[in-house]
Structures are given as C-alpha cells and as structure tokens.
User: What shape does this take?
Amino acid sequence: MLKPRSALLASVCILPSLLLCGPGGAAFAAQPARGQAAQPVPSGGVIAAIRVSGNRRIEADTISSYMVVQPGDAFDPARINESLKTLYETGLFANVSITRSGNDLDVAVVENPTVDQVLFAGNKAINDKDALAAMTLKSRSVYTVAAVEADRRALLDLYAKKGHYNATVTPNVIKLPDNRVNVVFQCNDGAETLISRITFIGNDHFSQGKLDEVVSSREDAWYRFFSSATNYSPDRIEYDQYLLQKFYEHKGYADFKVISANAALSPDRVGGHTTGEKPEREACRV
Assistant: This one.
C-alpha cells in the first residue's frame, strides 16, 4: 500500500482549546489574568499593613515580597498598580486584586493550579518520551496558559522535524481536587509529507541525475513505499546540503557553496518539492 500523502505546509497554527474540565466532563473557560486594577486605590496616607487572602500554597510573606509597595510606604496608585503587575508576572496567580481598607492594603489572590501529570493522546509519529522532554510543564510545576501554548508549539516543531507538517495539537486541561490539573495534549499526526520532486538550479557541470545520486532524499515513487528517504525532513535537507558540499569539494570545486534549499507546495497539493541553488566554479588547479 502506498504511503498517505499530504500537502507541505510551512506552518500549522491552530489556536488551542484551553479548558478546565470537571469530573463530569463539564468545561469552563479559563479565567484570563487582569493586568490592571479595575479601580485605582485612593492615594493619601501611609500603608499600615498588607493583608493577603486566597493563598493556599504560597506564604503571605512571599506574596508581599513580590510587591513594589510595603508597609510604611505612601498609598501611591501608580506603585500599587506596578505591584499588581509584578504579582501577575510571577506566573503564580490566575487572578489578583488589590484594594484599600482604611490604612491597610488588601491583596486577594487566586493561585494558578499545579500540574499533576502531562499526558499525550493520539501521538504515533513522536513518542511520549521525546514529547515530554520538549515540555516546559512538568509534574508539580505551576500551570499557566502561556506555558501550555509554548508546549503546544514545541510539539508542532517536533512533528515538523518528522515531516508531519499538517499535524494538529489541542491541549485540554482537566481539573483535579486541591487546585491541581492534568494537561492532556490531544495529537493528530496527520499524513507524512512526501517529496514529489527534487530540483537543482545552477548545476552547469553535473546533471540532475548525478546530483540525485549524491543526496539522501528521494522523490516519492510506488516502488519506494518502504523507504523513509521520500519523507520530507528539514534535518535530511540539511544533511543533503552537507553531502553536496563534500561532493563538489572532492571534485575540486573549492569555492562551491549551496545558496539555498527551499521547500514549496506542489501544484497538485499532494506533496512537496525541494529546490537547491548551487553555483559551480572552475575546479582548482594545483
């Protein structure tokens, strides 16, 4: 059976579905962090104390230490707003609010959950070990939407290196007791991207057929259905450039260089073709 073909896509960017799911499967939209207080804290007077509420894992003194203002400082709305931003920038909190109560500053926080497990489903082209190594989220790390998105993109990069340019990755966040979550990356490998044509430009001294023999990549054909050389891979293209460089150097072309190696979608949208531009120069005479 012939391998499935797919269009060669330069990038695949599907917005993730970030959900907090309860035990019954109900989904709740993740609450976005606010970067600015809804109402500025009134100025005037001196801060007597900072009272922290809503914290479960993080000590109140630790939270206060992240703030720009401290007890004994004046009620400065600009510095208090800066304190709000610094608390968000720690990545520890899903929501923070700062209000004034007399001469006290009340800081209410909602802590980001901790990650219990990072799991993968549907992935066949990449194994769990390689996928987990690419993740920034680990067991017991703090969950953030930004970290999940970064890890989703890291998985797409792994797929691209395997020649799966139309792979999709959708992260789902499952809520657990004690403010913990499991992060499950639902993967769809998509079909392998195969090379439909290899073209060389600027090769005045060696034919297309000869250079085809030099590179490790091969054009897709029915009799090569067991070969991985027909799969498009950036690492393989880089290796092909190295092989061409060595070939020309061996033939005496000391000034030879590969100008570029480009991949493009084929007109019939069932595969990709690569084009390498290689200016040849006269062989060196000793």
Notes: The chain has three domains: 19-25+113-188, 49-111, 195-277. Helices lie at 60-65, 77-89, 128-133, 145-161, 208-214, 234-250.
